[in-house]
Amino acid sequence: xxxxxxxYHRPDSLAEAVALLANxxxxxxxxxxxxxxxxxxxxxxxxxxxxxxVGRIAGLDTIREEGGxxxxxxxxxxxxxxxxxxxxxxxxxxxxxxxxxxxVQVRNKGTIGGSLAHSDPAADWTATILALDAEIKAVSRTxxxxxxxxxxxxDLLTTALKEDEILTEIRVPSLPANSGEAYLKVHHxxxxxxxxxxxxxxxxxxxxxxRDLAVGxxxxxVTPFRARKVEAALKGRRLDSGKVREAAQGAVDGxxxxxxxxxxxxxxAHLARVYTRRAIExxxxxxxxxx
Length: 291
Ligand SMILES: Cc1cc2nc3c(=O)[nH]c(=O)nc-3n(C[C@H](O)[C@H](O)[C@H](O)COP(=O)(O)OP(=O)(O)OC[C@H]3O[C@@H](n4cnc5c(N)ncnc54)[C@H](O)[C@@H]3O)c2cc1C
Fold this sequence. Notes:
- 33% of the residues lie in helices and 26% in strands.
- The chain has helices spanning 14-24, 37-42, 78-83, 85-90, 92-99, 104-109, 112-118, 125-131, 228-234, 241-248, 265-287, and strands at 7-9, 28-31, 50-53, 63-66, 69-73, 135-140, 143-148, 153-155, 158-159, 166-173, 179-187, 194-204, 210-218, 225-226.
- Flavin-adenine dinucleotide is lined by residues 29-37, 74, 101-102, 106, 110-111, 113-115, 117-118, 120, 123-125, 161, 166-167, 192-193.
């Protein structure tokens, strides 16, 4: 289908993009990779009057290490994150997640900032960003602010970004020694999105005791979430298989689950429990050197 008519803007700088967005308010939309927004416009589920293409603003796609954190520009593509040597060594969970997204074309065009701003309930980055306790930087005409991942995803396709804010950077803490991570996903057979996606970060001490654990889950509810009950059950304990299996049963406790033609809420709950267990086991094995 053909989208509603719109005016196309291509700012050369972030300041120009911020000014355009402030000027057009609810009539303006940022365009990054276009892999979520353009399909919505073609279906006429979105009809912005002004499209502000930030895709060629220099420097918004860089990935660098700064102050013990990895700073990822909003325009970094999934492919950049999948293939970056820095990311692979400092936070392999990011590259593992990126590799699970869509296909080569999607990974070459889609951006991490676009994915987070769009906040599809079945998107992959959301679980990982939660598990990593990332910070999300946003800029508007009134200045810059940092939003904790746990406060970012508010509702279906709704984030804490204000109408006049542009997501510019994601900051991820470097992982301590003896850490392991894993992202496991059940791909929807038609779309490739996550029916269930589980991101795990675990830190162990020398005796095999779990010092810290974070479990982010996507695909099963309208927003991604941390499986706090699982985390609480395993922190400070040895991660033997019986304990992990038992704790993973609590993966979706208290969560209102989605149901659709492909997967009922019961099936999603089952998958979430199984994939939570497997992801914790894989992350723990990696933390103890059995990658
Ligand atoms: C065939 C196909 C398969 C896919 N499979 C998967 C998959 O398996 N897993 C998955 O997670 N995703 C998947 N996607 C989605 C893909 O990852 C998108 O690239 C991503 O969701 C959106 O990123 P984008 O850069 O294309 O954003 P765009 O489509 O350009 O923008 C999306 C939304 O975010 C806003 N936005 C974008 N950038 C910013 C910014 N910097 N600041 C503020 N707002 C911004 C836009 O205004 C828009 O509302 C798939 C997409 C397609 C087409």
